[in-house]
Amino acid sequence: MRIIKIKSFSLIIFLTFLPLFTVSFGIVDAKTQYVSDQLLITMREGKGNEYKIIKMLPAGTPLEIIQESQNYLRVRTQDGQEGWVLTQYITPETPKTEIIARLEKEIDQLKKTLEQCKGEKDSLQGQLKTVKVERSKNVVELTNERDRLKTLNDRLSTETEHLRKENSLLKRLQILWWFLAGGGVFFVGWITGRVSRKKRYY
Q: Mean pLDDT per segment of 10 residues, for the chain of length 202 residues?
C-alpha cells in the first residue's frame, strides 16, 4: 500500500509540473518580434467619426494644411482630395519610411557611382599597363638606337683619323713633288746652259 501511495504521489507531482516545463520550453523556442511603425488614418468629410470616410491615408503621406480647428485639420492630398484628419496623427517631421526610402535611393546611387568608379579604375589600370609596356618598348628601342649611333660614331671617328693621316701624307708628298719639280727645272736649266756654252765654242 505504501509503494502504491508513493507512486501515486509521484505521478501527481509530475502532472502538476508538466505544464510548467511545457511553458518554459515554449518561451525558449519563441522568436523575437517587433511592433511595426506603419500607421493608417482616416480622412473624413467632417470633424468627427460620424462623417463618411473619404480615404485611408498611410504613414508618410504628404498633406497640405488648409485649415486648423481644435483637434482636427482640413487637409488636401497630392491628388487634390480634401477632408478632415485628427491633429494628433499629423507631424511636421519627415516620416521614417520616407527617410528610409530616401536613404535606400542614395545607397543605390552610391552603389552605381562605386561601380562606375571601379570601371574607371579598371580602365585606368589597363591604360597604365599599356603605357608601361609601350614605355618599356621605347626604352629598348632607344637603347638599341643609342648603341647603333655609338657604333656609327666610333666607325666615323676611325675613318676620320684614317683620312687625317692620309691627308697629312698627301701634304708631305705634295711638298716633295714640288721640291722634285723645282729641282728638275733647275737641272734642265743647268743642262740647257751647258749645252749653249758648248755650241759657242764650236
A: 47 51 42 53 90 88 87 90 90 77 89 90 87 83 88 88 86 83 77 69 54
Contact indicator for 40, 58 with CB cutoff of 8 Å: yes
The position carrying cell 509540473 is: 17
Burial 93-130 (b: 16+ CB within 10 A, else e): eebeeeeeeeeeeeeeeeeeeeeeeeeeeeeeeeeeee
Given the candidates 2.30.30.40, 3.40.109.30, 3.30.565.10, 3.40.50.20, the CATH classification of the domain at 40-101 is: 2.30.30.40
Kindly state the helix (H) or strand (E) to which residue 195 belongs, with its residue range: helix 96-201
The domain limits of the chain are 40-101, 118-178
